[in-house]
Amino acid sequence: MVKISKTYVPNLKEKYMCEKHKAFFKKKLTEWKTEIVRANNEALYNNSLDDNSASADIVDQASSYTEKNVEMRAINRQIKLIAKIDQAVKKIQDDTYGYCEETGEPIGIKRLIARPIATLCIAAQEKHEKEEKVYADL
């Protein structure tokens, strides 16, 4: 993989998903994953330190349980996000990153910068969301 500067941002004039683009997104995804793992580890560590439920009254125990439940759901969402990040990195390695899973068309640099784990182009994503809304309204 080609080396890029810390300030490099993909240029729309460059060939789509050239080696520089792939290096940029791999770096962005890897850094994002590292930050999520660090934050999750910190949250889990802090949760383990805050366990004073044995000495607390029933209201405090219920409050503590609710807080921990919310935190664990957030961590579970982050774990799912890590899986999506891993899938995106694998797609970079397979040379399929940046292309819509439904149409095969380019997703677009701007969209990938905003959402590096995007797997659908805007048109396919909008179609998918409309279908979800139709089924949700039933």
UniProtKB/TrEMBL annotation:
Database matches in InterPro entries: DksA_N, DksA_RNA_pol-bd, DnaK_N, Znf_DskA_TraR, Znf_DskA_TraR_CS
Location of the Zinc finger DksA/TraR C4-type domain: 96-130
UniProt entry keywords in alphabetical sequence: Cytoplasm, Metal-binding, Zinc, Zinc-finger
Residue stretches making up the DnaK suppressor protein DksA N-terminal domain: 22-92
Database matches in SUPFAM superfamilies: DnaK suppressor protein DksA, alpha-hairpin domain, Glucocorticoid receptor-like (DNA-binding domain)
GO-annotated molecular function: zinc ion binding
Coiled coil feature spans: none
Name by which UniProt lists this protein: Uncharacterized protein
